[in-house]
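Sequence and fold:
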Amino acid sequence: MKYKNNLNFTAVGFETAQDTLWSICQIGLVIVENGIIIKEISHYVQPPGNKYLRSHSLMHGIDPEVTGRLPLFPKIWNEIKQYFDNRLLVASADFAIDCLHQTLDYYNLEKPRTSFECTYKMTGLNIEDLCRRLNISYKSSHDAVLDSIACAEAYMKI
């Protein structure tokens, strides 16, 4: 696989507090300009009602104590929407774009103009297997920013 030049995109990942995709509790963004990661952003946010399923907290380690005093998604969205609008979004699964759209709908926020690429659809491999195949160090699953870093690196190599 060849490394692409002049790539500009935002790799995105989310963790959710419940089975509902609008229950985002962590946002991970990796900003790539000209094929270089220039910024990594991680935000914990309070999901609606600060309610968690135990199974989700066990998976990603985020619980009501972590997010209890944090802002809801709309406040964070005002800080990060610049990284979405008129940009290519890249994720390792449709889950990420579905989370974003459902959360924006839940809070009645305008959706950004964007296009979307999914590494799973491109390769048929989940992020862990894709990183293994591409010899990319994969540090974690269920951490939105670490998953976004792996996704960005994989996308640049596909």
